[in-house]
Specification:
Pfam family, one: cNMP_binding
Strand order of the largest sheet: 1-8-3-6
Largest sheet: 4 strands, antiparallel
CATH superfamily of the largest domain: Jelly Rolls
InterPro entries: cNMP-bd_dom, cNMP-bd_dom_sf, RmlC-like_jellyroll
Protein name: Cyclic nucleotide-binding domain-containing protein
Number of domains: 2
Distance between the termini: 61 Å
CATH topology of the largest domain: Jelly Rolls
Number of helices: 10
Helix content: 10-25%
Strand content: 15-25%
Number of strands: 16
Radius of gyration: 21 Å
């Protein structure tokens, strides 16, 4: 990979000899690239940048996002995502970093996580410019509809069906303050709630992808910023569908119940902000007066999880 950076004229010859690439996950296995015409995807790959990180190298520093219109695709290796020194997720070959920036979605505040290579890691840096150009190209109109729909729904636009048409009766919500305005924290102080927006990770899910499963341990609480999520419960014939502004998994994350009590599946493209249980517990250290409200016993009915006595 370093040879391609130093001698770009040797790029094609080097890539042809790197047969290990064919053994790993392929780029078109990522939902954001599914359906993209082969000529467009080939051009994206030809113009991709390459980086190599040794074990313990920093891939991304806190507050430094991926460049606008770009994402990092892990070819091989492994990396850890940490916030305030607490590991929240592990990335492996085939995972991507910076999807929101790739789709040119507005992120506020900037991501506060740090990504460290936990093994020797090869990544390619892909640009989305060619995809946005293809959306405007009549030759690729049908093939690019899934990509166009992803951008539109995740940015708060109309919810679209498989043909790119607006779904009747489905009003879109785009709530950038979904963490701060969550019902879960409605009786908490503003200084406490304000810090939580810096402790979350922005995640995107595509239609049909599972956010979490019933019975899993509740490591995360999810705040829906855009899109719709279907909640399925074993034995319940009718599924519930929720949208922007809803908080998912809060009872399990707060240990009010031993595990997630439903399965959450993306009904449309979904932008969620994920808060790890350990980070919530860390936040409470600075605000001990909030602990009774947040970690206390849940009240009944619709009164709210943390209502004062």
């Amino acid at each position: 990979m370093n040879a391609m950076v130093a001698f770009p004229e040797c790029r094609e010859a080097v890539l042809e000899n790197e047969t290990w690439r064919m053994d790993g996950p392929q780029l078109n296995s990522q939902r954001v690239f599914q359906g993209v015409p082969a000529p467009v995807l080939s051009r994206v790959m030809r113009e991709a940048g390459h980086k190599y990180f040794r074990q313990c190298d920093c891939i991304l520093h806190p507050g430094v996002p991926v460049e606008e219109g770009s994402l990092m695709y892990i070819l091989r290796g492994e990396a850890r995502i940490s916030i305030l020194g607490l590991e929240v997720r592990t990335l492996k070959a085939g995972d991507i970093i910076g999807l929101h920036k790739f789709l040119k979605l507005p992120q506020r505040p900037l991501p506060s996580y740090e990504i460290i290579a936990s093994a020797a890691t090869d990544v390619i840096i892909l640009k989305s410019g060619m995809l946005f150009e293809a959306v405007e190209d009549d030759r690729f109109e049908d093939e690019m509809k899934p990509f166009q729909s992803a951008v539109q729904v995740l940015s708060g636009g109309d919810i679209l069906d498989a043909f790119g048409l607006k779904v009747a009766g489905q009003e879109a919500k785009f709530l950038t303050d979904c963490v701060e305005q969550s019902e879960v924290f409605r009786v908490c102080s503003m200084p406490f709630v304000a810090q939580l927006a810096w402790l979350v990770e922005d995640l995107a899910f595509f239609p049909g992808e599972r956010i979490y499963s019933q019975g899993d341990e509740g490591f995360f609480m999810f705040f829906i910023q855009a899109g719709r999520v279907r909640l399925e419960v074993l034995g319940r014939p009718k599924h519930e569908v929720v949208d922007g502004g809803t908080t998912l998994g809060d009872m399990a994350c707060l240990k009010q119940v031993p595990h997630y009590t439903e399965t959450a599946i993306a009904e449309t493209h979904v932008w969620v902000r994920a808060l790890h249980r350990r980070l919530l517990e860390r936040a409470l250290v600075s605000f001990p007066e909030e602990e009774r409200r947040v970690m206390g016993q849940a009240s009944g009915g619709q009164a709210g999880v943390f209502e004062d006595d």
